[in-house]
Specification:
GO terms for molecular function: DNA binding. This protein has helices spanning about 5-20, 55-65, 75-80, 100-130, 160-175; strands at about 30-35, 40, 135-140, 145-150, 185. With about 190 residues, it is of the alpha+beta class. β3 (about 135-140) and β4 (about 145-150) form a beta hairpin.
Length: about 190
């Protein structure tokens, strides 16, 4: 009485109810969405018979432990359909942050430390290690361009005419530009 419910809070309440009831939106058992109208309770409801005073006190204790918000779907559906919603009115909502236990805080710090170590370790390895420099030997010189090959590679005598031809064509096509400083040739199949 006197409450105005906007669409988003009704949708959120129905969503929460469906989660608690484990009700699917595709094939609902309890709450059905009626397009452009609202929601409809489609399950059967039975009234329980009055219980003895002993069993009532036991149920009260169980309800306190398993307390959950109760939503009257008929009232929600009627008020949503009949009451025009004022879009400019906003309800104030207070959100309580869940308290984190010390073990969760420790787990968060441990996770953060592991991420930092995982990022820094490869960077340190790259910065602190020097790759071994390859040593080369000169196997020829064409158009004042030395041709080098790594010391541990096999002879490239079969490739020498092809290498000379490549250097000659490069120099001819790039006449106005500077020529290569050196050419490094590695093994391959002729």
């Amino acid at each position: 009485q006197g409450f105005e419910v906007d669409d988003s809070s009704l949708t959120q309440a129905i969503s929460t109810l469906r989660k608690m009831l484990k009700d699917s939106t595709k094939s609902p058992e309890f709450v059905k969405t009626v397009p452009k109208r609202g929601y409809q309770l489609i399950s059967t409801v039975e009234r329980l018979s009055p219980l003895s005073s002993d069993s009532i006190s036991e149920l009260d204790e169980q309800e306190e432990e398993n307390e959950a918000p109760v939503v009257d779907l008929d009232q929600f559906a009627e008020s949503a359909v009949e009451t025009p919603v004022d879009k400019t009115t906003e309800a104030e909502v207070t959100v309580e942050k869940p308290k984190t236990s010390p073990s969760q805080k420790n787990a968060n710090w441990l996770f953060r430390i592991l991420v930092v170590v995982a990022v820094l370790l490869p960077v340190c390895v790259l910065m602190l290690t020097n790759p071994a420099e390859s040593q080369f030997r000169q196997i020829g010189e064409y158009h004042n361009v030395p041709v080098m090959t790594p010391v541990n590679h096999p002879q490239l005598n079969d490739w020498m005419p092809s290498i000379e031809q490549c250097i000659k064509r490069y120099v001819e096509h790039h006449a106005g530009e500077s020529s290569p400083v050196e050419v490094i040739a590695t093994g391959g199949q002729p």
